[in-house]
């Protein structure tokens, strides 16, 4: 069975990038949501992206971004994927994919089974799906809140596109999350930090090791 791919989201410094590369993560995420403690400007993200080792997938996280914002990011930062973490409709996902010619990963926030209803429509237009915990109504951030959701909602699901699991993952629970859901890709932001927006190289290494050390990855049926 192939290795679990890990994405570490919200990198801000060259030290973060070095830790991610050293740990053997597959993807690095740059966060362009201005209210986030993980926010980077396009210029800051560019400096990190150009220094990234070959083969590290560079992902831009945006939230309901308009064309002007996306134009600025895509023109400045060498990217491999766009992560849409807002309320983008399937039509908007298709529009962004066509406009920039980059693979697009659409995020679905999940708290209850009904939240998974739009999955089919999004799988028809996006290249990948990221299943994350749904942010509470009063949350400032639509993601990166360190919340988990009921992983049993994913068990036995048929997927048309590659998908990634996120939401409250940590070095301590990622192995169990992979075993319970059968995820082959995982994403983390706050679970590898010492404070909001401050990545911890030791936790990054421990997370990747825990994710890649899982044997079997067979979903446990309800
Ligand atoms: O991390 C943020 O600050 C953030 C802000 C706005 C939208 C999304 C955001 N983060 C998304 C992620 O980094 C992850 O994909 C995901 O939400 C998991 O976060 P966490 O539970 O902290 O691991």
Automatic annotation (TrEMBL):
EC number: 5.3.1.24
Keyword Amino-acid biosynthesis: yes
Pathway(s) it belongs to: Amino-acid biosynthesis; L-tryptophan biosynthesis; L-tryptophan from chorismate: step 3/5
Annotated GO MF terms: phosphoribosylanthranilate isomerase activity
InterPro entries, alphabetized: Aldolase_TIM, PRAI_dom, RibuloseP-bd_barrel, TrpF_fam
Residue ranges of every copy of the N-(5'phosphoribosyl) anthranilate isomerase (PRAI) domain listed in the record: 6-209
Family matches, as Pfam families: PRAI
Catalytic activity: N-(5-phospho-beta-D-ribosyl)anthranilate = 1-(2-carboxyphenylamino)-1-deoxy-D-ribulose 5-phosphate
Record keywords, A-Z: Amino-acid biosynthesis, Aromatic amino acid biosynthesis, Isomerase, Tryptophan biosynthesis
Family according to the record: Belongs to the TrpF family.
NCBIfam families: PRK01222.1-1 (NF002295)
Name of the protein in its database record: N-(5'-phosphoribosyl)anthranilate isomerase
